[in-house]
């Protein structure tokens, strides 16, 4: 397959080299993600009648930070590299090598949210609605970090926007990291904010995020190169697609439940 490419990846993954310390773009993108979440969370908290104060926002972001890092890394090891970490235990903490799993991070955040609701006695569904808008743009920042690292590239293609990633060979590939940015980041954020304007039933935004992310990730997986050590699994689906199915089902179920509960409450009023 002859491919005309318009870009060959040659970005240095190190943002700043101090000799004794190297600051990687991947880590910088995580800081950007949490800065965006902090800004959006405080904007929501400042809205009249939000029921949130700055201390609660700070605590929520701290819980979420730990959930993302611990869950993301442990999830990656569990879902993708369990045998590898047995051979090299220090790989567990080398997050700049790109070994983070969104699905593991999600489980970590869900667990952190449960601890947060116990401390502040907030509704879990309402907390999900508060958190949902904070995530997509952070995901976009993380995927930009993947792109800068030249990792998680797409499958070979001859489309006009094909890119060459040196670690993927001298062939044109889908820039699937940027597809993630567009669908899981920008588009999903826009959808959530549009739904939020309609003031939907409690729990709806959390459900929209779960289902929306699952559908977006499931779609991008058709263009993303499967993990070499896993390949395509049963029914021709990748690990990412299999992990997204429960998200889609759970998200749709939460939306239906939220609407049904609101309708029942309205009938009793």
From TrEMBL:
Stated role: Catalyzes the transfer of the diacylglyceryl group from phosphatidylglycerol to the sulfhydryl group of the N-terminal cysteine of a prolipoprotein, the first step in the formation of mature lipoproteins.
Location of the protein in the cell: Cell membrane
Similarity-based family: Belongs to the Lgt family.
Topology versus the membrane: Multi-pass membrane protein
Name of the encoding gene: lgt
Pathway it works in: Protein modification; lipoprotein biosynthesis (diacylglyceryl transfer)
Pfam families (alphabetical): LGT
Sequence intervals crossing the membrane: 23-40, 60-80, 100-117, 124-144, 178-195, 202-220, 240-258
Molecular function terms from GO: phosphatidylglycerol-prolipoprotein diacylglyceryl transferase activity
EC numbers on record: 2.5.1.145
PROSITE patterns hit by this protein: LGT
Organism: Alishewanella jeotgali KCTC 22429
Principal subcellular localisation of the protein: membrane
UniProt xrefs under InterPro entries: Lgt
Name of this chain's protein: Phosphatidylglycerol--prolipoprotein diacylglyceryl transferase
